[in-house]
Design goal:
The chain has 198 residues and is of the alpha/beta class. The chain contains 8 helices and 8 strands, in the order ββααβαβαβαβββααα.
């Protein structure tokens, strides 16, 4: 059954930097994998090696679900490995000032809401999360809000992406499995599929 995503609740990870490209999210040397398994441990690998204080290194942000980013998040090459690495690290939603179009589409197709907020709200969210990494952050697609402590930030996203997430239409595999009986029925009517044996 397709999975509806109405909200994401969890701890936050502050990374309010601009122009974070997909090569920084997952370096090119990790693109040779046959599956996406194991990519999460390499998310931001080069940045993390250069900066021991990178949020993905720090214990207080481990298990965080909501990434708070900056402007033009996910720019650069269109590699699907970038959102795959983030989701395997544990990220389930991203709030940023703006997103690269292909990255945004890849995230939506994986069920990761990408929501735009003002820079002042992003700075406030990041400051609150930094001050108390245990704070619960709620990304509410219905209300188009992000709530964290006393902060209520209005957010925006494409209506088509929001509807896709909230109805479960982003989940193509779920839709296919939901229609399994219809698929089998149609396949039985196709001559080269019925009675075929390998």
């Amino acid at each position: 059954m397709p999975q509806q995503i109405l909200s994401v609740v969890g701890r936050g990870v502050p990374l309010v930097l601009d122009d974070i490209d997909t090569d920084r999210i997952i370096p090119a040397r990790f693109l040779r994998c046959v599956t996406f398994d194991g990519l999460g441990e390499h998310a931001f690998e080069d940045d993390r090696q250069q900066d021991p204080q990178h949020p993905f290194n720090l214990p207080q942000y481990q298990g965080g679900k909501i990434l708070v980013g900056g402007r033009n998040f996910g720019c650069g090459s269109s590699r699907e490995h970038a959102p795959q690495a983030l989701v395997r690290w544990g990220i389930q939603a991203i709030v940023a000032e703006s997103f690269a179009e292909i990255f945004f589409g890849n995230c939506t197709g994986m069920g990761i809401p990408c929501l735009k907020a003002s820079r002042s709200d992003l700075d406030r969210l990041a400051a609150a999360i930094t001050a108390n990494p245990q704070l619960e952050v709620t990304v509410d697609l219905s209300a188009l809000e992000v709530r964290c402590g006393d902060i209520v930030a209005k957010v925006d996203t494409l209506d088509s992406a929001r509807q896709s997430l909230m109805t479960g239409n982003w989940d193509f595999l779920g839709q296919l499995l939901d229609g399994l009986d219809a698929v089998k029925s149609r396949a039985s009517q196709i001559p080269y599929l019925s009675g075929y044996s390998a």
